[in-house]
Amino acid sequence: MNKEETEFEPFDPKAFEDEEDKRPLPDLPPLPADPRWRVEHLPFLTAFSFALMLCAASVGFLNGGVQNAFGAAAGVMIVTVSYTMSTLVLAWADTVRPALIMPLGMLTYVVKYSLLGIILAFVVSSEWPGRLALGWGVVAGVLGWTAVQIWWVARISRPK
Question: Which of 69, 83, 143, 156 makes an SS bond possible with 60, Cβ 3.0 to 4.6 Å?
Answer without folding.
Answer: 69
